[in-house]
Design goal:
By secondary structure, the protein is α/β, with parallel strands linked by helices. The chain is 37% helix and 17% strand. Belongs to the enoyl-CoA hydratase/isomerase family. It holds the Pfam family ECH_1.
Length: 257
């Protein structure tokens, strides 16, 4: 793995997967997208792994979505879209072992493809959540569908529509239930690993069946939302060059709520 760190502990049954591009704020390039899909599918066959923790390297970000330097050719049809992030999550790769996210720093945009497929989130006080799509003339489709399953409607609508002008702070994320535990500074990975160790000590059949049952309750809504996403993106996204102009002109000021 060139973009991920994968560390398994046979004694506890916990594997930690770390997004390892801190110099790019752990943005997902095409290599990382492929490696994430690969590691999730490999963990399906690893009997020593009974629970997983997902985190990001460095202090500044958990993940900032798709790397803007990634070139992704599109079919040119309003009914089809090639989105490399659609297969970066554990559930999309048929992994039904529990995955806990440990979030430090920014989690934005395409990071929600990962967070939306984790079973629960633990965050430190520096964690912030936001979606820049609308600021840059883009439709937040898949991200909104995934977060719509994890946050109250008004909260997810505000987060997605406010773009880069506002960030959801760790405390508010905890209050609305997006984050299940808010830790002391730097303690989010240890807290997530402790939870994973407890779960990994239980009989895996019952744990994995519970994960699958929980996800099945969400699948119908996700399928309906995903079916609408390609043409909404095709209709609503500005041309690439105009998006780049807006990105270059972006206002870096924001408030955290």
């Amino acid at each position: 793995m060139n973009t991920l760190l994968v560390s398994g502990d046979k004694d506890t049954g916990v594997t930690v997967v770390t997004l390892n591009r801190p110099e790019r704020l752990n943005a997902v390039d095409l290599a990382m997208a492929a490696e994430l899909a690969e590691v999730w599918r490999e963990l399906r066959f690893d009997a020593d792994t009974r629970a997983v923790v997902l985190t990001g390297a460095g202090e500044r970000a958990f993940c900032t979505g798709l790397d803007r330097d990634s070139v992704v050719p599109q079919p040119g049809s309003p009914y089809m879209i090639d989105d490399p992030l659609l297969r970066i999550g554990p559930k999309s790769n048929d992994l039904w072992k529990p995955v806990i996210a440990a979030v430090r720093g920014m989690a934005c945009g395409g990071a929600f493809y990962l967070l939306g497929e984790c079973d629960f989130l633990i965050a430190g006080p520096t964690a912030t959540f936001f979606d820049p799509h609308t600021t840059y003339g883009m439709v937040s489709a898949y991200e909104s569908v995934l977060m719509g399953q994890r946050m109250p409607h008004g909260e997810v609508a505000r987060t997605m529509l406010m773009g880069t002008a506002e960030r959801l702070g760790a405390r508010r994320a905890y209050e609305i239930g997006l984050v299940s535990e808010l830790t002391e500074p730097g303690a989010e990975l240890a807290a997530a690993t402790a939870c994973a160790s407890v779960i990994a000590d239980y009989p895996p059949e019952g744990v994995q069946g519970t994960v699958r049952a929980l996800w099945s309750a969400r699948e119908a809504a996700l399928a309906a939302g995903y079916a609408q996403a390609p043409h909404l993106i095709s209709l609503g996204n500005l041309p690439d060059e105009r998006q780049a102009e807006l990105f270059a002109e972006r206002n870096r000021t924001y408030r955290t709520r």
